[in-house]
Amino acid sequence: PVPTISWRRADGKQIPRKARRHRSSGLLEIPNFQQEDAGLYECVAENVRGKNVARGQLTFYAQPSWTQRISDVRAAMEERVSWECRASGRPKPSYRWLKDGEPLLPQGRVQLEQGSLTIPNVSLSDAGMYQCVAENRHGVIFASAELSVIAIGPDFSKTLLKKLTLVKVGGEVIIECKPKASPRPTYSWKKGKDILRENER
């Protein structure tokens, strides 16, 4: 006689509630298929003379989609710049980087690792448009950001040179001078109008 048909998952999980069964045609329909719906499914046909099972593996694939993008950065010369981009997808996406449309390779100061790009000490030549590319066999996506490198003359507005009063003759005095500047400045010290030079004291 005509068999009855039922469906089940071989891994013991429940068939999604959203699934629709059409018993007469032996059809199982799963709308809005998601990763949790993937797995090994079994179609069971049975009548009074016996039973037979057909198995099929449903695999979830998805093109990359951004979970973390990169954004524009303004950096002073010799500052550290880091970007990180992340994408979901199935299979897991791979990453590569472009600068001004050209492939960027790990070299010297530029460090690349998966979706991360780091420049420990930026220079004017690092300025430009950067792109993080995430891809798998189902698609490619791009995220873009601009790196602007700026130069700053020495600025003492946020530097405090303290007046120090010695309580004990022969004690040690440390005066810090840390102006904001890019690139890193050179330093010289004066006492009054006289240039101080390093000596035994």
List the helices and strands and how they pair.
Elements: E1 4-9, E2 20-22, E3 27-29, E4 39-47, E5 50-58, E6 62-68, E7 73-76, E8 81-84, E9 86-90, E10 94-99, E11 102-103, E12 111-113, E13 116-119, E14 128-136, E15 139-150, E16 152-155, E17 180-182, E18 190-191, E19 194-195
Parallel strand pairs: 7-15
Antiparallel strand pairs: 1-4, 2-3, 4-5, 6-9, 8-13, 10-11, 10-14, 12-13, 14-15, 16-17, 18-19
Question: What do these coordinates show?
Answer:
This protein is mostly beta strands. The chain folds into two domains: 4-58, Immunoglobulins (Immunoglobulin-like, Sandwich); 63-151, Immunoglobulins (Immunoglobulin-like, Sandwich). The chain contains no helices and 19 strands. A five-stranded mixed beta sheet has the order 7-15-14-10-11, with no helix packed on it. The mean pLDDT is 86.
Mean pLDDT score = 86
Distance N to C terminus: 108 Å
Assigned CATH superfamily of the largest domain? Immunoglobulins
**Shape-level CATH architecture of the largest domain:** Sandwich
Report helical residue fraction.
Answer: under 10%
Structural class determined from secondary elements: mainly beta
- Specify Rg, calculated over alpha carbons: 33 Å
Helix count equals 0
Protein name: CNTN4 protein
Family: Belongs to the immunoglobulin superfamily. Contactin family.
Keywords: Cell adhesion, Cell membrane, Disulfide bond, Glycoprotein, Immunoglobulin domain, Lipoprotein, Membrane, Repeat, Signal
Subunit structure: Interacts with PTPRG.
